[in-house]
Specification:
The complex is a heterodimer of chains A (186) and B (435).
Chain A lengths: L1 H17 L5 H12 L3 H4 L35 H17 L12 E8 L2 E10 L2 E11 L8 E8 L6 H7 L3 H11 L4
Antiparallel strand pairs in A: 1-2, 2-3, 3-4
Chain B lengths: L14 H22 L8 H12 L16 H13 L5 H28 L1 H13 L1 H6 L6 H16 L9 H16 L8 H12 L4 H30 L3 H6 L5 H8 L17 H4 L12 H9 L14 H13 L1 H16 L8 H20 L15 H13 L3 H21 L7
Helix pairs in contact in B: 1-4, 1-5, 1-19, 2-3, 3-4, 4-5, 4-7, 4-18, 5-18, 5-19, 7-8, 7-9, 8-9, 8-10, 9-10, 9-17, 15-19, 16-18
Classes of the chains: A alpha+beta (186), B mainly alpha (435).
Chain lengths: 186, 435
Amino acid sequence: MRRAAALLLAGACAALACGAPATPADTARAFLERVGRHPIHALPLLAEDFHARHALRHSVPGDPEFWSRRPAPLPSEPAARRRELEAAQLGWLIAQKGARLRFLEPEPIEERIEGDRASVAFRIRFEGAPSLVQRFELVRRDAGSPWRIEAIEQEGVVPANLAQAFLLSPSHELRRRAHEWQGQSP
Amino acid sequence: MGAGSGRTDRWSRPVGPLARGLLVLAFCAQVSNAFLLPPLHDYDAAGHALYAFALYQGRMPDPTTWGAFHPPLYYALGALVWRLSGSWLPADVALRLLSVVAGLLAAELVRRALRRRVGDGDAALVALVGYCTPAIAIATVMMGNEALCILLVTAVLARLVDLARVAPERALRHAIATGALAAGAVLTKVTAAIALPVVGAAYLWRFRASPRAALAGALLATALPALAGTLFFGHLMRITGSGPSVVLSGSRLSPETRAEMQQQGPGVRWPSDYVSFPIAAIARPYVESDGLATSVPGLFYATLQADAMGEYLPAKAQPGALRAGALLATAGLLPTALGALGLLRLVRRPRAHRWLVAPSVYALLLAAAFAYYQWSFPHFSAGKASYVSSALLPAAGWLALGVGALPARAAAAARFALLAVAAIDVALLWQGWWR
C-alpha cells in the first residue's frame, strides 16, 4: 500500500516537473501543436499581455462596437485587470470553436535569447496554401521560470492562407482583414 | 413477472449480460468521443475551461466571468487532473474524461441501487438505457459540471433508496456519509440543493418511530451541504453585490452570458408554451425547426432524446445529422413511454414502491424548478433537458417499473427493444461518423 502511494506521488511529481516546455523554441512549438487542435491546452503557454493584443472578445451578431474594437493594454488595477484578462481569454477561446488546423512540420528559422526575453520564428507550410512565417516574442520572470508567449507576429499572410493564419494565431485584426479582403469570416 | 418483483422470465435472462456488455461498449465510445469532439463544442465550453484554468493557476475566476457562478468542485478536480496530466493529455480531453468517468460511475450506482428492487437484469438494463439517453450521453462526454452533479446526486439518492434497510442505531453514521455526498453535489451545481429538503424529509420519515434518531439523521444529512452552499453563494453575493436570484441563476451575473441569452428566442413565454408539442420535436429535432424553441415540452424532449442544440451532432452542417436526430428521437419514444407508465404506476401505488418515492420527489421538484426557469429565462438554451439530468436514478426506476407493468411476453420484447434503443444511441452519437 505504501509502495503504491509512493509510486503515485512520484508519478504526480514527475508529471508536475515534466509538464512545461523548457526552451523558447519548445514553448513556441508546443503552442503550434496545441492551438489548432486543443486551444484550451495552449492557455498556460501565454503571458497575460498576449491577451491585450488580439482584441478578441465574446460578441453577438449586430454588436455595434464590433469593427471598431482595437487592442488595448490590460488595466493596472487588479480586479479590473482580471476581469479584462478573462474577457479576452474567453474571446480568444470562442474564436477557435471547432478549430481543426492541419499544417506540415514547422521549420524553425530563428531563435534569439537575450536574458529573460526571446524571439523565435517558424516557417509553416500548408497543403494547397502559401506558407507563412510566425514570429513569437517570449518572456520569463527569471531563469527558473517557464517561458511564456507575449506576442505573435505573422509574415506572408495573404487571402489564400488567411483561414490558416487565423487558426495559428486568432486576432481581431485578421478578422477585420478577412472582412476587407473578401468578405471572408475566419 | 418482470421488473418490480426482482424476477425475470427465461426469455429475458440474456438481457442482463447483454446490457452489461453494451455498457462497456458505450463507455469505450464515450472515451473515444472525448477525443473526437471538436474543440469547444461542449456547452459553454470556454466558460468551463476558463474556470478550471483559473484554479489551475491557483486563483478563483473573476465572479462575473462566464460560468464563474458555478460552485467549484468540478473545476477544482479538473484543475488537478490538468496539472497531473501535464503535457501528455490535452486539457480539454482531460476535462471531458472526468465527465466520462463520472457518467459511468453514475450508471453503476443506478444499477447497484436498483438491483435489489427490480432484479439484476432489469437494473443493468435501465442503467444502460439511462446512460445512453442522448441528454445524459452528451452531458457525460462534455466538459462541465453536469456529469459530476449527476454522479453525486445519484449517490445521494441511492442512499435514500437503501434507507429502509438501515437500522435506527446506524442512522447517524448513514446520515453523515449522505451529508458528505450531498455537500459534494451542492459544491458541484446549484440544482443539487433541491435534494436537501428531500434528504431531510426522508430521514425524518424513515426513523419517525425514534424522533431523536430522525431529527439527528435529518440534521446531519443536510447541515453540511446547506452550510457549503450558503458559504459559496453568500461569498458570491458579497463580492458581486447581487441578490440571491441573480447569483443562483448565474447567467445574469456575466455580461457575456447576458448578451448571448438576450439574442436567443423566444424571448417571452406564454402559458401555451408549456402544453404545445410540435411534431418537429421528433421528426426534425433541431432548435431552428418550426415551433420548437417556443415549446417547453417539445424542446425538452428533443434535447432529452436527440441533440436539438446542434452542438454535438453537426445539424447545421450535415443533413445526415438531422436524420440521425430524427431516428434518435423516434427511438426515444419507447423508453419515454415506459418511463411515464412506471411513474403512473408509482403515483397510483406509492406504498408498493416506497423505495422510489424520495428520488421521485426530487425529480418532480427538479422538474418544477426547470419549468419556472423556462418562465424566468425565456431563451432556448435554458430549455436543455441536461438541466434535469441529475434525476437519472428516479427516471431509471420509473423505466424499470414501466417494463415490470407489462405482461411477461411484452416485457421481454420491451427489454430487447430497449437494448436496441441503447445500441442505436451509442452508434449514432459516436463522433467518428460526424467528424
